[in-house]
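In the design runs reported in the main text, the only information available to the sequence generator was the tokenized backbone. The following block is the verbatim input for one such run; it is reproduced so that readers can re-run the procedure and compare outputs position by position.
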């Protein structure tokens, strides 16, 4: 049969009106989550007062200062950077997860599937443990460069270098299976090294475990200043490739027939998505399931068109992590990675059950 006859139509999303409504609704959910995360806490601040503080400080509106100074300090210096970090990290993980699910055509894929988390974890653990193992490094361990601390810098570098290593080692093999198997092997190796370093963690063991579980407690404006541009650039790069992602959903042969350089495009998308995941992990530690749960649910809601899927995933992923972080903060400081696991693990079980009922398909139909 001729190739053209076997081509499936390019995936399309809902109508323009429904797509706009979905985007507005998702933006509203993210905005409400942000306001709630800033207003609620051990010291409650009225939502209207919270909005007034934000409008005065961020937008420069000439509003009369009718609130205590301590309320403004809490909003601007403690809660707002943490809430914005949750939005950015959740959005970065969700959009990266959507891309990996499209590249691998598998709803089980997440942003860490080719070793990003393992590499970032090794970098972060080295940043925490190295001063204990080599006391001469203690002076530099607490320093910051361009606003980012040693742990965050090593986490980001570890994630990026691991992805580059996986891509290089997988070159020449099957583009999907090779990436998955190489990523699994490299992740296992790096995880073993992390486990060995835990034996020498000593009094830093608590800090290491907290980082590995994922937390936004230490997120500040300096973290946002570095991670924000990286996450923004990677998201824009991914969004500019929405047509390529739609074509890749049709299969490599069909995408190639339609003029797409599949190998080069896949490499570019892998690097952009890994950059987003590495920047997110450098801020929060390893937070699981956001990049798995959100893109799949959004795909069921909006369809597979990445022109809509990517921004919706970013908005709702950010909203989910913001709400989860607010919940753990109100519950007494449980690591947010624990909360996302409690949300994501039941979803994964449901997804596996749904896949079996649909005949074992790798991608359950929407």
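Verbatim output:
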């Amino acid at each position: 049969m001729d190739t053209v006859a076997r081509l499936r139509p390019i995936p399309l999303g809902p109508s323009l009106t429904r797509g706009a409504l979905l985007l507005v609704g998702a933006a509203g959910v993210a905005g409400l989550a942000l306001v709630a995360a800033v207003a609620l806490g051990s010291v409650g601040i009225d939502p209207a007062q919270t909005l007034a503080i934000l409008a005065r400080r961020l937008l420069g509106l000439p509003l009369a200062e009718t609130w205590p100074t301590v309320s403004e300090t809490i909003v601007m210096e403690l809660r707002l950077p943490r809430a914005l970090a949750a939005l950015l990290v959740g959005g970065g993980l969700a959009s990266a997860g959507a891309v990996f699910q499209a590249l691998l055509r598998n709803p089980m894929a997440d942003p860490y599937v080719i070793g990003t988390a393992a590499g970032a974890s090794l970098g972060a653990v080295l940043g925490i443990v190295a001063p204990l193992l080599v006391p001469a490094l203690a002076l530099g361990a607490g320093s910051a460069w361009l606003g980012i601390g040693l742990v965050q810098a090593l986490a980001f570098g570890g994630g990026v270098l691991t992805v580059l290593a996986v891509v290089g080692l997988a070159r020449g093999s099957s583009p999907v299976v090779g990436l998955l198997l190489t990523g699994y092997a490299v992740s296992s190796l790096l995880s073993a090294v992390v486990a060995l370093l835990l034996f020498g963690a000593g009094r830093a063991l608590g800090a290491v475990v907290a980082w590995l579980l994922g937390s936004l407690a230490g997120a500040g404006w300096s973290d946002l200043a570095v991670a924000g541009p990286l996450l923004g650039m990677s998201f824009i790069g991914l969004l500019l490739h929405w047509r390529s992602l739609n074509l890749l959903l049709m299969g490599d042969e069909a995408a190639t027939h339609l003029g797409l350089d599949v190998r080069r495009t896949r490499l570019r998308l892998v690097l952009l998505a890994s950059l987003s995941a590495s920047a997110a992990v450098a801020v929060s530690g390893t937070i699981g399931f956001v990049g798995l749960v959100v893109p799949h649910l959004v795909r069921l809601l909006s369809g597979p068109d990445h022109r809509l899927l990517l921004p919706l995933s970013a908005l709702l992923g950010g909203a989910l992590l913001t709400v989860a972080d607010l919940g753990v903060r109100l519950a007494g400081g449980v690591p947010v990675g624990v909360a996302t696991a409690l949300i994501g693990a039941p979803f994964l079980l449901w997804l596996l059950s749904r896949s079996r009922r649909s005949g074992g398909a790798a991608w359950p139909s929407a």
